[in-house]
Amino acid sequence: MSASPVCPRCGEALVVRPGDSAVAWCHLHGAVTPLHHTALIAHDAIAAVTADARVPAWVPDPVPSGWTVTGLAWGGEPGARAIVVGCAGPAPLGGAAELVLVAEEPGMGVGCGYAGLPGLDPGDVITGPSSAAVEAAGQRAPLWAVPTSDDRAAFVGEAYGVWLWLVMWPMSAGWLLAEELRLLDLRDRLYPDLPLGPPSEHLLPGE
Question: pLDDT digit string (tens) for 160-180?
């Protein structure tokens, strides 16, 4: 079940023209590609979104102990050009943590929305040596730390020719990258025992 679409940059409700699902209007950001999301995560929803997606749907592989997949959002129909997967579980330093993984084509603005950056793409944020890395579908993907608010940690890189973002709450959850995470693209394999949990607090930009 898809809930009402929101702006991929700020999470605000959109004005959608009847019969046109490709573009909508945000009172802050003008014409945008609507970001759709599921009210409740389910395996069949993931399968439907990934069936013709143009970008990966990343999840940790294996999912860390105690963690679950808690949300799914996508932009661009048909053939998603941005996919967000939300996860939640125990934080490395204690307490609870949340993680969103974003894969998006350039110019979508989704990852910047979660990281709190004003533009559509990370731009000159990617300079100097990388600060972390993940293994994305068997390939090493360097990540650069993104300056953001003090309630989260944000990293961006590239995999499969599109942006790869990891945004985590709280900031200390960035320790998830102390050991290189492996990521699975759910377009390649949606396993039936993928652990699913209640909706994420941070599934939408601006939350």
Answer: 999 999 999 999 999 999 988
| Helix (H), strand (E) at residue 59 | strand 58-60
Closest CA to 108 of 99, 119, 100: 119
Residue 18 clears pLDDT 60, i.e. is over it: no
Spatial separation of the C-alpha atoms in residues 84 and 90, rounded to whole Å: 20
CA distance 26 to 140: 36
Question: Alpha-carbon distance 207 to 20, whole Å?
Answer: 26
* DSSP for residue 6: B
Encoding tokens for residue 163? 């942006």
The amino acid present at 165, given as its one-letter code, is W
21-56 pLDDT, tens digit per residue, is 567 878 788 888 888 998 788 999 999 999 999 999
Contacts with 107 (C-beta within 8 Å, 6 or more apart), sequence order: 120, 121
Tell me: pLDDT of 60 over 90: yes
Residues contacting 55, CB < 8 A, separation 6+: 80, 81, 82, 83, 103, 104, 105, 160, 162
Under 8 Å between Cβ of 171 and 4: no
Amino acid letter, 96 = A
Half-sphere exposure of 141 (CA within 13 A, CB side): 25
The pLDDT value recorded for residue 1 is: 47
